[in-house]
């Protein structure tokens, strides 16, 4: 009799193990964690749709790539990568996009258009939080950068706050000390953090974000010719929200030119100049300026870590039907 009980227990254990393994291989992590190809069964063409829509948008407007990459970073900086930056001013919510630290955030409509297409194909399946990170991946890849294997399975938050964005997003004049603290908190190494600054390889910065470095005297870390050029661009204080300068010499290509430029005194923002001179970060800037592949490798590492920061998974949050609004 005892022998039969032992056999029965063993059979139960085997069945449970098989169920768990089947769950893992069929649907991924049963705990609801992030995984590669989370939508391979529920919406198999999801990632291809994101790529095609991003390609179309970037072809018609090259500013899409830097805008989406910045959108992804700013979403993750406020309470994690949860799609909160997309929520509109409704249902009593105060949107993050009106935070003064989110000045210039745009192209949210690209994410909304991707979501609309996916809702037609796979209703209430693909989260807005995932779409942001996948779109950012394409922004980098389609401009010549590395292709990153982004894990998916994020869910969308139901809350957003201008005050939280004001508090948690870094300022335009962030110092190296604060920069180090921000990435350390997210378990991102200093080297990977410096590599993430290479996202400045794409796009522009408005005068309001660096004009304090130009007057009354130019910041001595700026090369004199570069400082004079910026003074000409930003000479009218009433247009500081409109006038802009390129982040580096190749603003539509994801490459290591940013690091080459800041080593030569051509960094727009304070942090750009400081990481090129601070003993803690200078070696990484130099290495990335010399070796594009090393930059790509460390950027990929940092991006993936950031994209997995404080995500909602399992039963937390929701899958929004419209990225602009909570479901209820």
UniProtKB/TrEMBL annotation:
Chain positions recorded as Ca(2+) 2 binding sites: 250, 255
Catalytic residues (positions): 74 (proton acceptor)
Disulfide bonds: 43-122, 76-81, 128-323, 207-234
Main subcellular location: secreted
One Gene Ontology CC term in the entry: extracellular region
UniProt xrefs under InterPro entries: Haem_peroxidase (IPR002016), Haem_peroxidase_sf (IPR010255), Peroxidase_pln (IPR000823), Peroxidases_AS (IPR019794), Secretory_peroxidase (IPR033905)
Family the entry assigns: Belongs to the peroxidase family. Classical plant (class III) peroxidase subfamily.
Protein name per its UniProtKB record: Peroxidase
Species this protein is from: Acer negundo
């Amino acid at each position: 009799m005892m022998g039969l009980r032992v056999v029965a227990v063993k059979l139960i254990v085997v069945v449970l193990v098989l169920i768990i393994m089947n769950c893992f291989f069929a649907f991924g992590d049963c705990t609801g964690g992030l995984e590669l190809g989370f939508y391979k069964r529920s919406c198999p063409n999801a990632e291809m749709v994101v790529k095609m829509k991003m390609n179309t948008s970037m072809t018609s407007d090259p500013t899409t790539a830097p805008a989406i990459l910045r959108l992804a970073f700013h979403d993750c900086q406020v309470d994690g990568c949860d799609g909160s930056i997309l929520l509109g001013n409704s249902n009593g919510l105060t949107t993050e996009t009106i935070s003064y630290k989110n000045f210039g955030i745009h192209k949210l409509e690209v994410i909304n258009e991707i979501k609309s297409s996916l809702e037609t194909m796979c209703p209430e399946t693909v989260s807005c939080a995932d779409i942001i990170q996948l779109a950012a991946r394409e922004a980098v890849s389609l401009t010549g950068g590395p292709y990153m294997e982004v894990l998916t399975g994020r869910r969308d938050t139901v809350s957003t706050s201008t005050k939280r964005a004001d508090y948690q997003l870094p300022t335009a004049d962030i110092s190296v000390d604060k920069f180090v603290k921000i990435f350390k908190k997210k378990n991102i190494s200093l080297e990977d953090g410096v590599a993430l600054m290479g996202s400045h390889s794409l796009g522009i910065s408005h005068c309001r974000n660096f004009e304090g470095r130009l007057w009354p005297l130019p910041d001595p870390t700026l090369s004199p010719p570069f400082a004079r050029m910026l003074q000409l661009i930003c000479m009218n204080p009433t247009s500081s929200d409109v006038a802009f300068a390129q982040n580096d010499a190749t603003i539509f290509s994801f490459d290591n030119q940013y690091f080459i430029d800041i080593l030569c005194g051509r960094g727009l923002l304070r942090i750009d100049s400081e990481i090129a001179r601070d003993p803690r970060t200078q070696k990484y800037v130099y290495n990335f300026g010399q070796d594009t592949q090393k930059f790509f490798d460390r950027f990929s590492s940092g991006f993936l870590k950031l994209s997995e920061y404080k995500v909602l998974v399992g039963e937390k949050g929701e899958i929004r039907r419209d990225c602009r609004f909570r479901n209820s």
